[in-house]
Amino acid sequence: MGAQSAGPLVVGVDSSTQSTKALVVDATTGVVIARGQAPHTVSGGDAKESDPGRWWQALGEALAQCGDAARQASALSVGGQQHGLVTLDAAGEPVRPALLWNDVRPAPQSERLISELGGAKAWAQRVGSVPGPAFTVAKWAWLRANEPAAAAATAAVRLPHDYLTERLTGESVTDRGDASGTGWWASSTESYDAEILEHVGLSPEALPRVALPGEAAGTVHADDLPLPHGALVAAGTGDNMAAALGLGLRPGQPVLSLGTSGTVYAVSAHRPADPTGTVAGFADARGDWLPLACTLNCTLAVDRVAALLGRDREAVEAGGEVAMLPFLDGERTPNLPGASGLVHGLRHDTTAGQLLQAAYDGAVFALLQALDRVLDADAAPDTPLLLIGGGAKGRAWRETVRRLSGRPVVVPEAQELVALGAAAQAAGLLLEEDPAAVARRWGTARGAEYEAQPRDVAAWDRLATTLADGEALLRR
User: Fold this and answer.
1) Is the pTM of the predicted complex or chain greater than 0.90?
2) Can you tell me the mean pLDDT for 274-284?
3) Which candidate in 193, 239, 274, 288 is catalytic?
């Protein structure tokens, strides 16, 4: 056990695509007392699948690494990767490996569902989001079309965090945040949509109860984990909702996350319904909303450009008029699934450093363009951007965000924000407090502050023009 605790202990879990992390946190101060982590395996190729049983094993391993601290926890919550399809048989055993969010094989089913139920605008108004291939509803439709025997054997459908919560408690429970990424929970009614479920041949009885914000899922019943029996278990939530809790976000506070993929989001008091599908109209874990946009090409794409140029990722140079859209893997935001990278404006005097800077500019431009849609019209334009994720540590990323956004930037010191947000949810349940207020008391959003600088309008306009003029090439 590391630091000493002043108050009761809570556990926050982050069950992500690649691993499970567990933090034991002092509920009063937010001090991390112990931590553990264990890896998952994901199938290669087009299929992105994982055995849910491995998530449970990894949870046990991560908790064991926390030692005695985990055995003293009074409450626990699980934050998990969104959208994943977990199919269970009548005995509660997985029918097949879970289909993960980044499995894009359901793209044809996604397109068909959108057209069959009134088009993108109708979906946005009803569900809050246009269901892309990541959404659970498209994955279920894919399973029915491609593996009808597996679909027929399915008695219960769960999201990754629901599966872990159910094994912990014996209760079938989800929350509005993670449920809002399924495509069959309608934000307009805050309930499962009977017509959509009937359309895709799924019984409402196969789905978990949606807990209210602040409601417990149950208590720990599992015998095979180093946790005290009877400890409270919160409803848990999706990873993005947990990170928002972990930062203690208030409405209008923008977050830009720089990882393998990039995300921008903010808490909103207004229910989002973007008919273009750029913004996913998620619910948050508290009772507000979490409009979010995701780009596919972020840190890995820029690192690839640096490698091609034989330069260190920080070796950028200012100047020049080159524009790059580094859409190396196709792009989700803007919606250009078949796109490849595009470079325009090369000259004899263009340097390798300027070309690398152009890659950063293009990746950040795509995120900031989406941010304009994510934020409410009444959000203050000078609110600092919270910069998180692996890229937030990089000077070139930070300076590019400052130059293209014109906003002040704060880089929170707190790491493992999904697990911290889950811990804040557990602490809120235990202390009967708002979990976002708990996280604010913990000071999770504190960090290095960088003041605003004048926006580089010329670079922005160059990128906007290149995107508009190059659309025919990008759509090929």
Assistant:
1) yes
2) 93
3) 239
